Automatic annotation (TrEMBL), chain B:
Main location: nucleus
Superkingdom as given in the UniProt entry: Eukaryota
GO biological process: DNA damage response
Gene Ontology, cellular component aspect: nucleus; zeta DNA polymerase complex
Positions of the HORMA domain: 43-233
Keywords, in A-Z order: DNA damage, Nucleus
Subcellular location: Nucleus
Full protein name: Mitotic spindle assembly checkpoint protein MAD2B
One Pfam family cited in the UniProt record for this chain: HORMA
Record's keyword annotation contains Cell membrane: no
Native source organism of the sequence: Gadus morhua (Atlantic cod)
């Protein structure tokens, strides 16, 4: 391979003082992400041998993480110093690759997201052009095409008793291309079993092995998502009989996903995406038969799967937060957080028109939906925070109470995240650093001051701008909140 | 022509501001833009800049470790995570400072806003200088203007985050202050009219301003229709 890329990366890192992530590099140079990862690795290797200016690198580590008896699939970005530590703590390391290279030693993971933000935004229509995650069924709708997906896929409506078996046979055949092809056990658990198998086969840590792993996991996830979409699409074949099956199915998927907790981004994304698709399509049949008695039944049953789905996604997010809270590293699910942000925004948009249309018919069953819907809009950033702050800390923050400070199981480097939970609650932590002239007054004021600050910063209004005017009454109304 | 309109608007500012506040409270920045035709464009630009300066100051304090990182919390601005302090007094100080600076920016009197980091003896160690200039004919014309400006400001934020690669580390026990360099004699008005009660601005001492043998490190430049801004760091050659 020609060596020009080394000079390119050198220019970006040393001359421009940029943070070069593999995603940014692949979009900038127009290469596949795996090539970009290899480029960064070689560059780092090359520079380390030359021993010139100090370079810092971050790595993306994926693997199985066991915590308190719970196993989860963890994807984390770690600093180079913590790499060996995290790898040794994982029960099974699935993949390790270079995430970014930069001159500066980053204090937190925020800039890593910023770097990719603009690059992805510029290539929004084709941001997955060079991605290693592919799904043949994920084809955007043609403009003006409003038919539900079920018609286009043309799956025959399956027998209620055999709902799982036939729907899995079709797309299951796609996995024959996978090198380790196995007879798929029927049912949803079969999907997870077959996915776990290739993981165990390849505990390698080299990049080449990791590449293969990417493709196998991509294949498995592709088949899983394909089969999921086919099962979802079956529902649109005949609506009346499928409602009952759907609730059963959704509860099963939610329970199985809770059990397994495999949270690599493609299946999680697909799980969230298909509920979105479903909701979009459901508005259409609903609007068609507004005055029938059916809508009421459908809505009651809809709220159940929706709650299950929302629970699944919220559980997924909370569980992502849980294992990540324990990691001793800079953490971030790079593609997850972006996708999740987009998902929550997408979910918000799609849910809103639905609740508007169904408001007329029945208010009571919709209120739990609306409450859940209200949660995402005020707190899209809070979801991001939720992932970063561990769950018990989040509860503490809401109550704004000083809670036990005994969570000292973190060493200094990891504390950046968990300390924040305490910081907002108990000012006594920062009193050690901040001049303690007003130590006694600060804690009492801090709790209220912080609450106001949060409101101020979240609202994006500039209240100080209005301090001098006589419209205090208007601002007073909002500040009371 | 714009100056005359500015004068007239100053007199009618109270009434206009009512609309302005209402528009702010109902929705986001883009709504503000639609009512901007009735309003002073300078006010809109000043708001954008002051919001940006607030975020930038917090980030500088975080990156240069002026205050312990425990008081900082991740918040979202321009769709990216930024570190903002939670300490109420610090936040209040920064907000009061910027509120006083805002009228100067509105009138395009502020030439530079400098965030100066000083050591224990109150000698400047580092200076982050934001040079601001606004074009004489201010017009907010295109729809994509705000998102373009947001993108440029995001780049500034990113540059501040990685500036520790090009700067030497500061000695412990540093504090910070904000200096504003104004054009002409705009500060005369500031001394007469206290924008915020009990928050006086004074002319800076020579000791606080002068830095021996400064090293200049440019960080970022941006040019847009509404504002031109440049950020560079002046660093003392020997910090400890």
């Amino acid at each position: 391979m020609d060596e020009l890329y080394l000079d390119n990366i050198d220019e970006y890192v040393n001359d421009h003082n940029k943070i070069v992530t593999y995603k940014w590099l692949s979009l900038t140079l127009g290469v596949h992400v795996n090539t970009a990862k290899q480029m960064l690795f070689h560059y780092l290797d090359h520079k380390r041998k030359e021993s010139s200016a100090p370079l810092h690198a971050t790595y993306l580590v994926t693997g199985k993480w066991v915590e308190n008896g719970n196993t989860s699939h963890k994807v984390t970005v770690v600093r180079e110093e913590q790499l060996e530590d995290v790898k040794s703590k994982m029960s099974l390391t699935v993949s390790v690759h270079v995430y970014s290279v930069q001159k500066a030693s980053l204090k937190d993971s925020g800039p890593l997201y910023s770097v990719d933000y603009d690059a992805v935004k510029d290539n929004l229509n084709s941001c997955s052009r060079y991605s290693a995650i592919k799904c043949a069924d994920a084809v955007p709708f043609a403009p003006g095409d409003t038919r539900p997906a079920g018609d286009s896929l043309q799956f025959p409506p399956p027998d209620p008793n055999q709902i799982r078996a036939p729907s899995f046979d079709g797309p299951g055949n796609q996995t024959t291309s996978k090198p380790a092809a196995k007879p798929q056990p029927k049912g949803i658990m079969g999907m997870f079993a077959s996915k776990a198998a290739p993981k165990k086969q390849e505990p390698g840590k080299e990049i080449k092995v990791e590449q293969k792993e990417d493709t196998t996991t991509a294949d498995v996830s592709k088949s899983k998502s394909a089969s999921k979409s086919s099962t979802m699409s079956n529902f649109f074949g005949s609506q009346a009989t499928k409602r009952a099956e759907k609730t059963v199915k959704e509860e099963e998927t939610s329970s199985s996903s809770v059990k397994d907790k495999s949270e690599s981004s493609p299946p999680a994304k697909k799980l969230k995406e298909t509920p979105n698709e479903e909701k979009v399509k459901e508005t259409q049949p609903k609007e068609e038969k507004v005055k029938e008695t059916q809508p009421k039944e459908e809505k009651v049953k809809e709220t159940q799967p929706k709650e299950a789905k929302v629970k699944v996604t919220k559980e997924a997010k909370v569980k992502e937060a849980k294992p990540n809270a324990r990691s001793k590293s800079k953490r971030k699910e790079p593609s997850d957080s972006e996708e999740d942000k987009m998902e929550t925004k997408k979910r918000r948009r799609i849910k809103k028109p639905q609740s508007d249309s169904s408001d007329d018919d029945d208010v009571i069953p919709d209120s739990p939906k609306q409450q859940e819907m209200r949660k995402p809009p005020p707190t899209p950033e809070r979801l991001l925070k939720e992932k970063i702050v561990s769950q018990p800390n989040e509860c503490k923050r809401r109550k704004r109470r000083r809670v036990m400070k005994s969570r000292t199981f973190m060493d200094e480097e990891g504390c950046i995240v968990t300390e924040k939970g305490y910081e907002s609650e108990s000012y006594s932590d920062s009193e050690d650093h901040v001049p303690s002239a007003k130590a006694s007054n600060v804690p009492a004021r801090a709790a209220t001051g912080k609450r106001e600050d949060e409101k101020k910063s979240k609202k994006k209004i500039s209240p100080p701008a209005n301090k001098g005017t006589k419209q205090a009454s208007i601002m007073g109304f909002f500040q009371k909140k | 022509m714009l100056n005359i309109s500015l004068l007239i608007l100053n007199f009618t500012m109270k009434i206009k501001r009512y609309l302005y506040i209402y528009s702010l409270t109902t929705s986001c920045k883009f709504y503000r833009l639609s009512i901007a035709q009735d309003l002073n464009f300078g006010q809109v630009v000043a708001d954008i800049l002051c919001e940006f300066l607030e975020v930038a100051i917090h980030l500088i304090l975080y990156v240069r470790e002026v205050y312990p990182s425990g008081i900082f919390q991740k918040k979202k601005k321009y769709n990216v995570p930024v570190q903002m302090s939670c300490h109420p007094e610090l936040n209040q100080y920064i907000q009061d400072t910027l509120q006083c600076v805002k009228p100067l920016i509105e009138k395009n009197d502020a030439e530079k806003v400098a965030v100066v980091i000083m050591d224990k003896e109150h000698h400047p160690v580092e200076r982050f200088v934001f040079e601001i200039s606004q074009p004489p004919l201010l017009s907010i014309s295109s729809d994509t203007l705000l998102s373009h400006v947001e993108q440029l400001l995001r780049a500034f934020i990113l540059k501040i985050s990685v500036c520790d690669a090009v700067l030497n580390s500061n000695p412990p026990g540093c504090s910070f202050t904000v200096l504003v360099h104004t054009r002409e004699a705009a500060t005369r008005n500031m001394e007469k009219v206290q924008v915020i009660k009990d928050f006086p601005w004074i002319v800076a001492d020579e000791q606080e301003v002068h830095m021996p043998e400064p090293r200049l490190i440019p960080l970022k430049t941006m040019t847009s229709e509404i504002v031109k801004m440049q950020l560079y760091v002046e660093e003392r050659a020997q910090k400890t």
